[in-house]
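Notes from the 1:1 (GR / supervisor)

We went over the backlog. Supervisor wanted to see one worked example end to end before approving the batch request, so GR pasted a single chain during the call. The sequence is below; no edits were made to it. Supervisor asked that the structure be written out right there so they could see what the output format looks like.
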Amino acid sequence: MTKQELIGIVTGIGKRIAPEKRGELFVSEKTNEKKEQQENENNKKNRKIGCNQFRDIAILCRDAECYEEIEMLIRYNMSKCKGGESWMYDCGGGTMFGSIVLECMEDIYNTDKEKCTENLELFFGYLYWQSRIWAAESQKG
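Structure output shown during the call:
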């Protein structure tokens, strides 16, 4: 899979999330760290996805031996969330953010099974960059 194709998949995720909902889903840790920390202390819940999670997942892909490891990690992240929050955020039509990511991962896996973990590493790296952009745009808007 080419880098352009992977970037296209990441861009496609953005088309499935309304721009006004991105601010409810993504938080850029550096710019909103104090605000989010206070909100988390007050509400005792993690409602948004920190962009750095995608960078961390990309690093885990580098060491993963198979696709199923990363798939299990995403499903685990989804299972920790309360309905409607973070990985379980409804991006529209009842489609959860985590499900969108899993669909993209499956497409990447089915395209090139031998280089799957390498491609997933790039995918989550690009998703990290793009989520930072979405978080910044929602702050400006």
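Supervisor's comment: The first helix runs from residue 3 to 15.
Batch request approved.
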